[in-house]
Design brief:
This protein is of the alpha/beta class. The protein has a single domain, classed as NAD(P)-binding Rossmann-like Domain (Rossmann fold), CATH 3.40.50.720. 51% of the residues lie in helices and 16% in strands. It has ten helices and nine strands. The chain has helices at residues 8-19, 31-40, 58-72, 95-123, 135-138, 145-165, 184-187, 204-214, 226-237, 239-249; strands at residues 2-3, 23-28, 47-52, 77-80, 86-87, 127-134, 170-177, 189-190, 221-223. Strands 4-6-7-9 form a four-stranded parallel beta sheet, with helices on both faces. A three-stranded parallel beta sheet has the order 1-2-3, sandwiched between helices. Helix 1 packs across helix 8 and helix 4 runs parallel beside helix 6 (145-165). The structure holds NADP nicotinamide-adenine-dinucleotide phosphate. NADP nicotinamide-adenine-dinucleotide phosphate binds next to helix 1, helix 4, strand 6 and helix 7.
Length: 251
């Protein structure tokens, strides 16, 4: 089950899993996008079931899992990927925008986990919860503070959730994703414009391949690129230098 499957990383991940033979529940609000995705996977070894649902609504996520169980009778992997970005100063930003970021990136992840884990657990075979976070959690950027903090929530949640699920043989992996080509920049709330245009950008398919790879391994955290590791290590080891760099990059 993949949330945020109508665009970008989630869409590429749904296709990658289906091409490996998986049965994929593709979740997002835009039903027509999901139907197009299902058609695109028509000759894949696996299949895609589109489910229109909003991750901010607990009841819709419960219904989505019920639809998966009714169709396939099991759920093995959750990829909690749906998310929205925000740009703007903490003090000046519209509260409605900040609330959307918090409801989607925090509540949405919780609703996805709380709906999916009982179904994974009921199979008795174990499984995997993959949470899509960001390097912004570890290397917070100015004017993306609330977004970065929402991803810090995901990182913190994952660390403790891992202990809660380990006895059920359900593994938790966090992806600290760096800048990736997707619809993220267009969908981002707050001020328009480029945030970090000079940083190298990955293809969504690259992230998707690693998510499929990680779903078969017991990784705690995945950072895809050297440059992202440098950012994360820089923020931890040389915070003063990183502050100056971030201030220069983000305007
Ligand atoms: N792109 C990057 O540079 C980057 C970097 C670091 C981390 N990430 C993270 O990667 C994840 C995927 O982002 P992306 O780059 O693929 O962005 P994207 O192309 O904008 O895709 C976002 C997806 O989330 C879905 N979504 C948003 N709000 C939703 C809601 N309330 N209910 C259900 N689905 C919802 C959207 O579908 P609908 O609008 O159809 O609902 C869409 O499918 C996010 O968590 C993001 O924070 C991205």
């Amino acid at each position: 089950m993949i949330t945020g499957a109508s665009a970008g990383i989630g869409r590429a991940t749904a296709l990658a899993f289906a091409r490996q033979g998986a049965h994929v529940a593709a979740i997002a609000r835009r039903a027509e996008r999901l139907e197009a995705l299902q058609a695109e996977a028509a000759d894949a070894e696996g299949e895609i079931m589109p489910i229109a649902a909003d991750v901010t609504r607990a009841g819709e996520m419960q219904q989505a899992v019920a639809a998966v169980m009714a169709r396939w009778g099991r759920l093995d992997v959750l990829v909690a990927n749906a998310g929205v970005g925000h740009r703007g100063a903490v003090v000046d930003a519209d509260w409605a925008d900040l609330e959307t970021v918090l409801r989607t990136n925090i509540d949405g992840v919780l609703h996805s986990i709380r709906a999916a884990v009982p179904a994974i657990r009921s199979g008795g075979r174990g499984g995997h919860v993959i949470l899509i976070s960001s390097i912004s959690a570890a290397a917070p950027a100015p004017y993306a503070a609330v977004y970065g903090a929402s991803k810090s929530f995901v990182n913190g949640l994952a660390r403790a959730l891992r202990y809660e699920l380990i006895d059920d043989n359900i593994w938790v992996t966090t992806f600290l994703v760096g800048q990736t080509h997707s619809e993220f920049a267009q969908a981002r709330l707050g001020r328009p414009g480029r945030v970090a245009g000079k940083l190298p950008t990955m293809q969504a398919e690259t992230v998707a391949r690693r998510i499929v790879w990680a779903s078969r391994r017991r990784k705690r955290t995945v950072v895809l690129r050297l440059i992202d590791r440098v950012f994360i290590l820089g923020a931890a080891l040389t915070p003063g230098l990183m502050d100056r760099l971030q201030k220069a990059i983000y305007k």
